[in-house]
Specification:
ten-stranded mixed β-sheet; about 575 residues; about 20% strand; 17 strands; about 25% helix; single chain; 15 helices; alpha+beta; five-stranded mixed β-sheet
């Protein structure tokens, strides 16, 4: 070993360094670099032993000259000592692989690193000491915490804090005499896959009006008021009440019958949060999927997959139930307003099977399509399209649906400010807050073989006015491309349907109900009496003209709102007296 003797070091009571400049520096340390500093200077690293590592060729790291008082990068004497001491040292990296955001600041270098002067750059752990084990335990705890939060958010067990409790109630009252046969977790649905051949059209009923292409040029600057179409009738008929499906069943055209609304609910079940139910009837060798009268399937969910809580009061205009009714009205009116008013209409094989003579039905065409599930099982579904477009003498089917904005403070994105400049951000927010609804619309478009799906962006005139709305934009997408964009796999969709059909085909004749658990990601199957749901009373929403206009918010509080209500009531009495 090279010897090193430290000469006499005189004491300097007045400061740092030699007490007198006339004193010469000993020869032993005459070549050591020295950085003068005062008592007020903040010291970093006295000696930077990693400077040679960061300054090697090809390194882009920038070293702060104030980080170290001594720089030994130009002196190779210490490298010779290290080589003689141990030539098998390796660069040991004990830093954690995961990034801890918001944690304590980590130093730029790890003092446990050892540099091999023989340019061996392999990084191998030399030993698993307590620090490495502690960091591994921290990573495991962090991963377990994330998994626990994810499962809580997906299952809804913390729904009381995250969302209002009324949303997480079962869509149907489970009776004690019902017999639960099975429960299927959503985790098994994600592994299913089934490929179906191209379907065939058995029949097309109804009539379609042409799409008005001027609505594609709407922007928030030239918005259009949403109109109300009270003279047109919209039909939400279940499977077994459809006369066409009854006729096809009597002709043995298939063994399984359903509607596109019911099929899309099954296909997108893993994305659902709210509870829903589907009635299953096994009659002979045939299977019918139905919905109850006034079921939640007739409405449109709003803010279903969002983490922001909605008001817990059902009568509030921003509660889940009120928003569902409002979204259903908006969707119906939008689908009729964006059509041409020239009276031109396309008719198909048969008229609307649900409209009586002289009754004006909304623009809709019902496509009865048949899919082959296996050699013995065929499925017939009634699929809907709302409009038709003609480009270069070629006609294409369109589905029309509307997204609705009720209050920007819930979504965090103001459509009037972002639709023109950041339309992708608006759509991404809707995909986060309404993933299930958009997936169901896409599945319905694929089932109906629509060439284009039009999405309208409809917003309230004022956040507290849920009667008056404006159309801010209309965007068209191809269903297959949009399905790829939202990660909707058609093979998985049909795999879910096929597994449910196979499961129900093994049941004996009778009536059953599939219920989405309100708090867990799973579906339960109950055996119910034959007369179940036949005498259920359903509270229908009030027509728009009979609903009471909500009072506007005033800075004066509840007293001002009460005074405004009295003025409104006085005006209504005066109007009735004049009439």
């Amino acid at each position: 070993m090279v010897g090193f003797e430290l000469g006499s070091v005189p004491f300097n009571p007045d400061g740092w360094g030699p007490p007198d400049s006339s004193i010469s520096v000993p020869n032993q340390i005459s070549n050591a670099p020295f950085g003068p500093f005062s008592r007020s200077d903040k010291l970093g690293r006295i000696a930077d032993w990693t400077r040679s590592l960061s300054n090697r060729p090809g390194s882009n790291s920038k070293q702060n000259p104030t980080d170290a008082a001594f720089d030994f990068s130009g002196d190779d004497s210490f490298a010779t000592l290290a080589a003689d001491e141990d030539s098998s040292f390796r660069l040991v990296d004990t830093s954690a692989k995961s990034h801890h955001h918001g944690g304590p600041h980590r130093p730029k270098f790890n003092p446990r690193w050892r540099f091999n002067p023989h340019h061996n750059r392999s990084q191998l752990p030399q030993r698993r000491d307590e620090e490495v084990e502690a960091k591994k335990r921290e990573q495991e705890k962090e991963r377990a915490r994330r998994d626990r939060l994810y499962n809580l958010n997906r299952s809804g067990t913390n729904a009381g804090q995250r969302r209002e409790s009324s949303v997480f109630k079962s869509s149907v009252d489970i009776q004690p005499e019902w017999n639960m046969l099975d429960q299927i977790p959503f985790s098994t649905f994600s592994k299913l896959s089934f490929t179906v051949s191209e379907p065939e059209d058995l029949l097309i009923c109804g009539g379609l009006e042409f799409y008005d292409r001027s609505y594609d040029r709407i922007s928030p600057k030239n918005e259009r008021r949403l109109e109300r179409f009270k003279n047109k009738n919209f039909f939400k008929v279940t499977t077994t009440d459809d006369p066409v499906i009854r006729r096809l069943a009597n002709e043995d055209k298939a063994t399984v019958f359903a509607t596109d609304t019911i099929l899309s609910t099954l296909m997108c079940a893993p994305r659902s949060v709210y509870s829903w139910d589907i009635v299953v009837q096994r009659v002979g060798n045939k299977l019918f999927f139905d919905k109850r009268d006034g079921s939640q399937l007739d409405l449109l969910s709003v803010h279903e997959t969002s983490q922001e809580p909605l008001p817990d009061v059902k009568e509030d205009i921003n509660s889940a139930h009120s928003l569902s009714v409002e979204a259903a009205y908006i969707n119906q009116n939008f689908s009729q307003q964006v059509l041409m008013r020239d009276g031109k209409k396309l008719s198909y094989d048969e008229p609307n099977p649900f409209a009586t003579e002289g009754e004006e039905a909304a623009s809709v065409a019902y496509r009865y399509r048949r899919w082959k599930l296996d050699n013995d099982t065929y499925l017939v579904a009634r699929c809907e399209v709302q409009s038709v477009a003609e480009v270069n003498n070629q006609r294409s089917f369109l589905t029309l649906n509307a997204l609705n904005e009720f209050d920007p403070k819930y979504s965090g994105v103001d459509w009037r400010l972002k639709l023109e400049t950041q339309r992708g951000a608006v759509l991404a927010t809707e995909l986060k807050n309404n993933a299930n609804k958009l997936a169901k619309w896409t599945a319905q478009s694929l089932l109906a073989n629509a060439d284009m799906m039009k999405l309208g962006y409809v917003s309230r005139v004022h956040p507290r006015d849920h009667f008056n709305h404006v159309i801010l934009a209309v965007v068209g997408y191809k269903p297959k491309d949009f399905a790829t964009q939202i990660n909707l796999n058609t093979s998985n969709m049909w795999g879910i349907v096929k597994s449910i059909v196979d499961l129900c085909m093994k049941l004996s004749e009778g009536k059953y109900v599939l219920v989405k658990d309100p708090t867990k990601p799973q579906v339960r199957i109950y055996e119910v009496p034959p007369d179940a749901f036949e005498n259920d009373y359903v509270e229908e929403p009030l027509p728009e003209d009979e609903q009471v206009q909500p009072p506007t918010e005033d800075a004066q509080g509840a007293e001002a709102n009460g005074a405004a209500n009295e003025v409104v009531e006085e005006k209504e009495v005066t109007t009735e007296a004049a009439a």
